[in-house]
C-alpha cells in the first residue's frame, strides 16, 4: 500500500484507478515468475559451460585405464574418461530438468483476490471475454506465451517446488561428482587445480587439500536441503493461500539461485584445471590387476592343454599367498611372480604381458565415451554455442 499511495501522490489523475481490482500478489507473483525465468536463463548457459569443458576432459582421457570401484572396493577397470562421462550424464539430466522447469513457467496474469477474476468482471461489466483478453494481453506484455488459467490468490507454490527440485537435483549431481574427485585426490590419481601460491593447510605445508571440491560439496548440500523447504511451503498453502510462504520464499528462492550460481562457477574452475597422474593410476592398477587377471590366466592354460580344475586350485592357492603378502605384510602384489616361478604355468609365461595389458580390461569404455559425446553431449552444447566462448573463459577463484 505504501507503493500505491506514493504512486498516487505522483500521478494524481491515475490515483482513483491505481491497483483497482488487483492484489499485491498481482505485482509480487508476476514479478517472481519473471525473475525465476531470468534466473534460469542465467544458470543454464553456465551449466552448459561446465558440460562443455568436462566433455573435453572425457574425450582426452577416454582410453586411459583406471581402477573401477563398486562398494568403494576395487572392481573391474574403467577409464578416466568413462568415469567423467558418468558425471556428464547426470549433468545432462540436470540441464533437461532446468530447461523443462524454465519452459513450463507461465504467467499468473490478472486473477484477483481468490483467483476468480470477480473484480475484473465488475470492471468490465460482466464481459468475460474482455477479462480473458486482458489476462492474456498482460501475460504477452510480460513476455509469456502462456498463463496459468486457474490460480488462487497466488500462483501455485508447486511451481516454486518444481524449480527448486531441479536446482536441488543439480546440487546432488555436483556433490556426487566432487565427492568422487575428493576420493580420487586422496588416492593421488586426479587433482583439482592448485594455484602456485595456494596454501593447502595452515599446519601442514605439504598438503594439497581439494578445497574447491569441498566448497562445491558444502554449497551443494545446502542446495539439496532447500527442496524440503519448498515442498513444505507448498504443502501448507491452505485453500486459496496463506501468508506463511512469503518470508520463507524470499530466502529459499534467492538462496537456491545464488547457491547454484556459486556452485557452477566453482565447478567450472575445477573442470578447467583437472589434473590426472597416469603413473599413479598405473601403479594402482598393477596392485590389483593380477587378481583380476586370474580368470584370463586359467583360460590361457586351458587353451594350452591344461586342466581347468587343476589350474583353478593352483591359482587359488597362489592368490591367497599373494593376498597375505599385501594385507599382512604390506608388500606389493606378487601373484604374477609366483605364477612365473611355478613350472605348471610354463606354457603361458610368454603370454603374461599380453594377459596383463590393462587396455584389454576396459571393454567398450572408449567407444562408449565417443558415442555418448557425439549423440548426447555435443548436440546439447551446440544449443549454447553463441554464449559459450565468453562463459568458458578461465574462472579465477579466491582460494
From TrEMBL:
Name of the molecule in the record: Adenylosuccinate lyase
Organism for this UniProt entry: Papilio xuthus
Reaction(s) catalysed by this chain's protein: (2S)-2-[5-amino-1-(5-phospho-beta-D-ribosyl)imidazole-4-carboxamido]succinate = 5-amino-1-(5-phospho-beta-D-ribosyl)imidazole-4-carboxamide + fumarate; N(6)-(1,2-dicarboxyethyl)-AMP = fumarate + AMP
EC number: 4.3.2.2
Subunit structure: Homotetramer. Residues from neighboring subunits contribute catalytic and substrate-binding residues to each active site.
Segment forming the signal sequence: none
Top-tier EC class: lyase
PROSITE patterns: FUMARATE_LYASES (PS00163)
GO BP term (any one): 'de novo' IMP biosynthetic process
Known pathway: Purine metabolism; IMP biosynthesis via de novo pathway; 5-amino-1-(5-phospho-D-ribosyl)imidazole-4-carboxamide from 5-amino-1-(5-phospho-D-ribosyl)imidazole-4-carboxylate: step 2/2; Purine metabolism; AMP biosynthesis via de novo pathway; AMP from IMP: step 2/2
Amino acid at each position: 500500500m505504501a507503493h500505491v499511495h506514493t504512486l498516487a501522490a505522483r500521478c494524481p489523475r491515475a490515483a482513483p484507478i491505481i491497483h483497482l481490482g488487483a492484489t499485491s500478489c498481482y505485482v509480487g507473483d508476476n514479478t517472481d515468475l519473471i525473475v525465476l525465468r531470468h534466473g534460469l536463463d542465467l544458470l543454464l548457459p553456465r551449466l552448459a559451460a561446465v558440460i562443455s569443458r568436462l566433455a573435453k576432459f572425457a574425450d582426452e582421457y577416454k582410453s586411459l585405464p583406471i581402477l573401477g570401484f563398486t562398494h568403494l572396493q576395487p572392481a573391474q577397470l574403467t577409464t578416466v574418461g568413462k568415469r567423467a562421462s558418468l558425471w556428464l550424464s547426470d549433468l545432462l539430466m540436470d540441464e533437461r530438468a532446468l530447461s523443462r522447469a524454465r519452459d513450463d513457467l507461465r504467467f499468473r496474469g490478472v486473477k484477483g483476490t481468490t483467483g476468480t477474476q470477480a473484480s475484473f468482471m465488475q470492471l468490465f461489466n460482466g464481459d468475460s471475454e474482455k477479462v480473458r483478453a486482458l489476462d492474456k494481453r498482460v501475460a504477452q506484455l510480460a513476455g509469456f506465451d502462456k498463463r496459468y488459467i486457474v490460480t488462487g490468490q497466488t500462483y501455485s507454490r508447486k511451481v516454486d517446488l518444481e524449480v527448486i527440485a531441479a536446482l536441488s537435483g543439480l546440487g546432488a549431481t555436483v556433490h556426487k561428482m566432487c565427492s568422487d574427485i575428493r576420493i580420487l585426490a586422496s588416492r593421488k590419481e586426479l587433482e583439482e587445480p592448485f594455484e602456485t601460491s595456494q596454501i593447502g593447510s595452515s599446519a601442514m605445508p605439504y598438503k594439497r587439500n581439494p578445497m574447491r571440491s569441498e566448497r562445491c560439496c558444502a554449497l551443494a548440500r545446502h542446495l539439496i536441503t532447500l527442496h524440503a523447504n519448498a515442498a513444505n511451503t507448498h504443502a501448507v498453502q491452505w485453500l486459496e493461500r496463506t501468508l506463511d510462504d512469503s518470508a520463507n520464499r524470499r530466502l529459499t528462492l534467492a538462496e537456491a539461485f545464488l547457491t547454484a550460481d556459486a556452485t557452477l562457477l566453482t565447478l567450472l574452475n575445477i573442470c578447467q584445471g583437472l589434473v590426472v597422474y597416469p603413473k599413479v593410476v598405473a601403479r594402482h592398477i598393477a596392485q590389483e590387476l593380477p587378481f583380476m587377471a586370474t580368470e584370463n590366466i586359467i583360460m590361457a592354460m586351458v587353451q594350452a592343454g591344461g586342466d581347468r580344475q587343476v589350474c583353478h586350485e593352483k591359482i587359488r592357492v597362489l592368490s591367497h599367498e599373494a593376498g597375505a603378502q599385501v594385507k599382512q605384510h604390506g608388500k606389493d602384489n606378487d601373484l604374477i611372480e609366483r605364477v612365473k616361478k611355478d613350472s605348471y604355468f610354463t606354457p603361458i609365461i610368454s603370454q603374461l604381458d599380453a594377459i596383463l595389458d590393462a587396455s584389454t580390461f576396459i571393454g567398450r569404455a572408449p567407444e562408449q565415451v565417443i558415442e555418448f559425446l557425439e549423440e548426447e553431449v555435443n548436440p546439447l552444447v551446440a544449443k549454447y554455442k553463441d554464449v559459450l566462448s565468453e562463459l568458458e573463459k578461465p574462472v579465477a577463484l579466491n582460494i
